[in-house]
User: Fold 4-hydroxy-tetrahydrodipicolinate reductase from Neobacillus vireti LMG 21834.
Amino acid sequence: MNEIKIIIAGPRGRMGSEAVQLVTATAHFKLAAVLDHKNDGMMLSDVAGFQSISNVPIYTDIEKCLQEVEADVLIDLTTPEVGMYHAKTALEYNVRPVVGTTGFTKENLAELEDICREKELGCIIAPNFAIGAVLMMKFSQLAAKYFHDIEIIEMHHDQKLDAPSGTAVKTAEMISAVRETKKQGHANEKETLKGARGAEYDGMHIHSVRLPGLIAHQQVLFGSDGQTLTIRHDSYNRASFMSGVKVAVETVMKHNNFVYGLENILD
Amino acid sequence: MNEIKIIIAGPRGRMGSEAVQLVTATAHFKLAAVLDHKNDGMMLSDVAGFQSISNVPIYTDIEKCLQEVEADVLIDLTTPEVGMYHAKTALEYNVRPVVGTTGFTKENLAELEDICREKELGCIIAPNFAIGAVLMMKFSQLAAKYFHDIEIIEMHHDQKLDAPSGTAVKTAEMISAVRETKKQGHANEKETLKGARGAEYDGMHIHSVRLPGLIAHQQVLFGSDGQTLTIRHDSYNRASFMSGVKVAVETVMKHNNFVYGLENILD
Amino acid sequence: MNEIKIIIAGPRGRMGSEAVQLVTATAHFKLAAVLDHKNDGMMLSDVAGFQSISNVPIYTDIEKCLQEVEADVLIDLTTPEVGMYHAKTALEYNVRPVVGTTGFTKENLAELEDICREKELGCIIAPNFAIGAVLMMKFSQLAAKYFHDIEIIEMHHDQKLDAPSGTAVKTAEMISAVRETKKQGHANEKETLKGARGAEYDGMHIHSVRLPGLIAHQQVLFGSDGQTLTIRHDSYNRASFMSGVKVAVETVMKHNNFVYGLENILD
Amino acid sequence: MNEIKIIIAGPRGRMGSEAVQLVTATAHFKLAAVLDHKNDGMMLSDVAGFQSISNVPIYTDIEKCLQEVEADVLIDLTTPEVGMYHAKTALEYNVRPVVGTTGFTKENLAELEDICREKELGCIIAPNFAIGAVLMMKFSQLAAKYFHDIEIIEMHHDQKLDAPSGTAVKTAEMISAVRETKKQGHANEKETLKGARGAEYDGMHIHSVRLPGLIAHQQVLFGSDGQTLTIRHDSYNRASFMSGVKVAVETVMKHNNFVYGLENILD
Assistant:
């Protein structure tokens, strides 16, 4: 495989530091530079936690970085605002963006899609880089065509504030897009304790378990006469995101179009 | 082992017919007679479905049955009203009752306990004969001493009317009897879809899944720092009750006291 | 939907009797006749277990049946030898075969494919009609592209003779067709009890659990850094096959080609 | 509760550093001193990683430590050799040992038991402090009395060398101590791929799954007619051991005898 030269924006963040590890540990990847909002002009090896990584300059100005450093791909793991600016600037310099963010607006996405079409460049925006979670959602959507009764159980540590989780709602949305609405359970079903049947989304039921010890887990259950099908994802730590970043970097070099969502490059 | 002579009340019911199978298939059990509300004076082999079972007379009158037939144990799988009358009459004739019913009142239980004490006879009343389910509840109660955060997921076919299931509520009650009330989850937890966190019972959360294909399943989840413990029972058919009936019959012959609940004879 | 007229071969078998139920219970299906090796000339309602099904003649000779009865689809749930003869004869009479059998040879399949091409008729041969199991295998094949470490745990009742199950081997074969061979586990892994790591198939490990109470269950586990993905199928009874037969009948009417394996019509 | 004064031996080890956290975070525990093979005479706050912990002196000589520091309990998380010496010395000074080690010989255990009897002091030696794992083993032993068919599936990360895991073997041993040997599965069972049925221990089957992403998980499956019971423990990180250490410290103060194995203090 040809070497892919990569710039990482946000190298000191939780995701960013994992990405630095990924890129430096992958034989055909080369870390060309990093973008950070401080430490301009220093080398990455001067920063605590990165001492062993040599020859990687730090830039605070993306334009200067792109003028001075030869690169193929920009991995951006910052914020939606910065990410949008970074992605547009990278495309101007013919560098392909791989951006992990949940916060882009429809207008943002449309604007990037236009630039990609015009410049015939690849760009991947992904709210979730955990391949296992993305496959779970994709398979759930496929299975919903044949199994019309579906319940989702998501399980997280008890410090999580929101229920259900974003992934559970996204899964239900994706299923809902292909399944006819169906009121599930017995027509005369009755809750003797309120809430027992969980939340309802387009007829599906979603249950949120919260316990100390748990990390991030979800199962999607499908039932029909005499059988059940279960698709389960367990995420134990942030390393789980990196295989998705790797696939995205490799894919963005092969395709000259705009893609939103990792599920659209997994086939 | 000594042969145990058994009368079964309700032989044509769903549980009763399984019990007939159990008794006739167990080497040290002997089916002495059956009690049915019809077919008085016939033989069980005259009834459809029981042709192969020889020498078992049918009675409609329990007094007549107990006068004519020598028996050690009465297995009653009828209704609470009939079961109470049967149990009392059996004890009068020094026959030990094993009764499967959920409907006895506190007064019923107290009355039977008194008779057992007076006559020094064993008697077992069990709302649930599935040993696996009873062990699940018993273990859950034990585990609750060390794991204070607990959620219950029960899963049944979608023709079930009530949620949560009786077993889930019984499990929560048993845990609640030994655990200090605890409000679980994050203090600022928020349901963005109503019901997501399930039903609450004394701080525990209970989730009821209903899908075609499922039969009767329950898991009890315990979480603490860095670990989870899960106890799960899957019931696939009524045969699951028979091992409990067998243990009850063997136990009722050994002990001369009244017992309510299979959990109190499993040690 | 247009009514589909159906002939069922093997109506008294375990699968066949489920198929009779399916066809008579489906609004747009009509049971036109059955093929049986006995009871020629009788009506299906004359046979024990089918009293309620009216107006369905029984034939022992398929040619006579196809000459006298107007039909769109033949569902064959007999044996490979009979199934092959039935399928060929049905195609001659422009009736589309849906055949459930594991025993066809490559020559059989090639011959049927030729006839279908020539006559421009649909025909579906499926060794497994359980949609959930087929989706599990299909999803496993898709996931193997991104998760290269895979183990299969199949669990069956303890009266099963062979280990691993046919479905487990089929799953491993399908994965193997798309995954590079990989020796899994630690290079210096050591079994202190022989067999602990299970069977090996092209580097994957397969584990066969046998316990009374279990029916037919399989999970395929995929692991990578920080995450696992699990796809599980539970089959509780033969009703699980019927949704697959239904999909096959509907599909065989729409497509004018030969298909082997339910996985090729689920998309 | 009365304050319990604690000395920790091995504070810089993986388990030891968790124990320092536990003791300093528990209201009724007080860290009186630590034993380390270096840094004698320094304060713990001088050591990297412990800066925030004040007033805890470091000793390399246990005798000197016990002479100068008032303590109730010694938590030892070192090696079997050092642990044995530490435990004996602590008892001489009327300090109760809580030792986490798998390596004590029968002679070691007998010697400590004698000292405890003579001095009427509590002492707890535990090879495994994960309460969830210990409860799983204890419940498995209880369930084996009613379910005679048992299989164990243990699942770990793919860098583990030995299969099966120590916990799986310990579980099988504990079950074996109360269960009659039973050859499980069909009498004519046949492995078409060698190893499929896993390892055998006294008739039970043990299966070892190894995948990247997994941490440390075990399930014990029990089957009988129409039902299965499953007990599962998931350990995600070393914090899981600390609740067991806490229970052991509290218990060792209450009882004046020798105990081997956490299972004997959980009731």
Remarks:
- Chain D touches chain A at residues 213, 215, 234, 236, 240 (CB under 8 Å).
- The mean pLDDT of chain D is 95.
- The two ends of chain D are 21 Å apart (CA to CA).
